[in-house]
Design a protein that fits this description.
This protein is α/β, with parallel strands linked by helices. The strands form 3 sheets. A 5-stranded parallel beta sheet has the order 1-4-7-10-13. A 5-stranded parallel beta sheet has the order 3-6-9-12-14. A 4-stranded parallel beta sheet has the order 2-5-8-11, with no helix packed on it. Helices cover 45% and strands 10% of the residues. The relative contact order is 0.07. It starts with a helix and ends in a 16-residue tail after the last strand.
Length: 306
């Protein structure tokens, strides 16, 4: 082994990779503060799970006073971690002043963190409606514990409900980190900007995609492979893509079966059923039943064909 050649190669490439290119600088925030930590964001989600499902993800404490003590400890850690990560994420805020002081940034971050803490009871309520919906929609679920422990859709919804609230609080970057952590584990891709009502169920789940501006009502069920996507994109006069509503609206009590694609800013009326393996690109009224056309079996004779 030629150590001289190895060292020369390492030194040359360290020098090249240590220099920040113009493109790299253009993709970095204007400040030089620390960036968000993926590991700390994971811990934030773990703490929220411990607070919302304390008997499932931590040692069971039937005594309410002891339970309150543990939740208080987790809440304190959550507030500290969340404030710091929000502060780091605020560098990516397009409307934020680049010359804000550290104290000003942390004051804004703390305000947003406390607003999130105030939202935890509602996040918990919504998640327990999701558990109920998944249990009611799946005869293979023997008990609620299996839904909470095992269902990838429940893991995804926990991440989504956390991320959606942070998105509503205009926290940059952090919400997307949270939803992508679930996406990488479950194959379910929900943008934190999507609006999802209560009693939401995803059966199986792999391959489900829900876009940023999708709006989903209450008591909606999706099966694996469903896409709630955009049909096309609009651009401004400079050729920049516009971030405008472009994903479907699903009203209450809608069921969408596997591998259906619902595209564009259309409305699926309440109490409708969308069959599997079809594209829907137009609005449908309430109580609709949309399914594939039946295959036509035709026998050709004497050289006849299509």
């Amino acid at each position: 082994m030629d150590k001289t050649k190895i060292n020369e190669t390492l030194r040359r490439n360290v020098a090249l990779l240590s220099k920040q290119s113009d493109r790299e600088l253009g993709m970095m925030p204007a400040t030089i503060a620390p960036l968000p930590s993926v590991e700390c964001v994971k811990r934030i989600v773990t703490l929220v799970k411990s607070i919302i499902f304390p008997d499932y993800f931590e040692k069971r404490q039937p005594d309410e006073a002891i339970r309150a003590y543990h939740i208080g400890v987790w809440m304190e850690e959550l507030t500290t971690l969340l404030t710091k990560q929000i502060a780091h994420g605020l560098q990516f805020c397009e409307d934020c002043e680049a010359n804000s002081t550290k104290a000003q940034v942390y004051a804004v971050a703390e305000e947003k963190a406390l607003a999130f803490i105030d939202a935890l009871p509602e996040i918990k309520r919504l998640l327990y409606t999701d558990i109920q919906a998944m249990f009611d929609n799946d005869p293979a679920a023997p008990n609620f514990g299996e839904v909470i422990f095992c269902y990838p859709s429940m893991n995804t919804m926990t991440h989504y409900r956390i991320a959606h609230k942070l998105h509503q609080l205009q926290v940059p970057v952090i919400p997307r980190i949270i939803t992508e952590q679930a996406h990488s584990k479950t194959g379910i891709d929900i943008h934190p900007g999507a609006s999802i009502g209560e009693y939401f169920a995803i059966d199986h789940g792999t391959g489900v995609v829900i876009g940023e501006t999708a709006i989903i009502g209450n008591h909606v069920t999706l099966y694996q492979g469903v896409t709630l996507g955009a049909k096309s994109f609009k651009y401004d006069e400079n050729g920049n893509m516009l971030n405008i509503p472009r994903h479907p609206i699903l009203e209450d009590h809608v069921t969408v079966y596997s591998n259906a694609s619902i595209l564009g800013r259309i409305t699926i009326g309440h109490d409708s059923v969308i069959g599997g393996n079809i594209w829907v690109t137009h609005s449908v009224p309430p109580h609709s039943r949309i399914q594939q056309s039946k295959a036509v079996d035709v026998a050709f004779q004497d050289g006849a064909g299509i």
